[in-house]
Design a protein that fits this description.
Layout lengths: L1 H62 L4 H35 L23 H11 L1 H24 L11
Helix pairs in contact: 1-2, 1-4
Length: about 170
């Protein structure tokens, strides 16, 4: 009975570990999508700045005050930014599909753009975090319960090792 109880508790902890892993994967996919959205925003800002500077460089060249080389360099940079934009859009489609798959939705389901709030400053007590992690991590608890289960099996095997004696008397 004790062996079965320890084994059941171990399976419960393995279930909790699998559930935690699924949550971790969803969070990772979500934050990957948020990172790509932020990169797209930055890329758009860079595109606007480069377009502005390209117009300035072309107008300076037309007036004879600037070099054609400056306008050509800016156009090459604009092409590089547009290429990066296409790459980010492709990565976003892949990240959307991954998140939708993890959430058991059709891969084509659109996910709105993600805007993360600013991260608040926090003080971290690492000793306390390590202690809480050891106490609450399902994999560690499952392993400890597996050890206890095996100890109970060893005790049971020791009891079965000794032969049973029957003491009896009879009249002749």
């Amino acid at each position: 009975e004790q062996v079965a109880a320890k084994e059941a508790a171990s399976y419960r902890q393995q279930y909790e570990a699998a559930k935690d892993e699924a949550v971790r994967q969803v969070k990772t996919a979500y934050y990957t999508l948020a990172f790509i959205d932020l990169a797209l925003d930055i890329n758009d800002e860079e595109q606007l700045l480069l377009d502005h500077y390209e117009k300035l460089a072309e107008s300076r060249y037309r007036q004879g005050a600037g070099l054609q080389q400056a306008a050509v360099k800016l156009q090459a940079e604009i092409t590089r930014v547009q290429s990066r934009l296409e790459e980010l859009r492709s990565r976003r489609v892949d990240a959307e599909a991954a998140l939708n798959t993890l959430m058991n939705r059709p891969a084509e389901t659109p996910v709105p753009r993600i805007k993360l709030p600013p991260v608040p400053a926090a003080e971290v007590n690492f000793k306390h975090l390590y202690q809480v992690g050891r106490q609450n991590r399902p994999e560690v608890l499952a392993s400890l319960l597996g050890i206890e289960r095996d100890e109970k099996r060893i005790d049971l095997a020791r009891k079965e090792y000794w032969p049973g004696f029957i003491l009896g008397a009879s009249f002749v």
